[in-house]
């Protein structure tokens, strides 16, 4: 018995930082499952404040802000206290490593972070359009 062929591949843009372990997991998962993507390293290529604001409109800014990394811990206490959306967007524009990784633009929505189950639902399960 042979396995069913994978569903048609979508071409995505995945944003992050190349040497991030979570990025490596996400890119490996996508490649192993035949999902084509362009990788944008926003540490090297930069990321605009407009792009970050657009992501915030499409998702919760709290999901985008990485408060678990070393960049966050290195910020001054005043910068980390009582962060609202405007402050978070300014911080992420100034310090792109504060953006949780990866950010995958799926067209109609964003996937933020790596979660194999979410990826399988998004990329492997047939949609109503197929």
UniProtKB/TrEMBL annotation:
Species per Swiss-Prot/TrEMBL record: Accumulibacter regalis
Protein name: Reductase
SUPFAM superfamilies: Thioredoxin-like
Family the UniProt entry places it in: Belongs to the ArsC family.
Coiled coil: none
């Amino acid at each position: 018995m042979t396995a069913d062929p994978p569903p048609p591949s979508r071409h995505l843009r995945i944003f992050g930082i190349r040497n991030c372990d979570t990025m490596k997991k996400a890119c490996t998962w996508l490649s192993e499952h035949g999902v084509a993507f362009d990788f944008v390293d926003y540490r090297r290529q930069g990321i605009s404040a407009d792009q970050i604001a657009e992501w915030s409109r499409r998702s919760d800014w709290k999901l985008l802000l990485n408060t678990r990394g070393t960049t966050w811990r290195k910020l001054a206490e005043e910068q980390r206290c009582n962060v609202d959306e405007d402050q978070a967007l300014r911080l992420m524009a100034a310090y792109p490593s504060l953006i949780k990784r990866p950010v995958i633009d799926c067209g109609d929505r964003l996937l933020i972070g790596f979660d194999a189950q979410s990826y399988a639902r998004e990329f492997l399960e047939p949609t109503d359009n197929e």
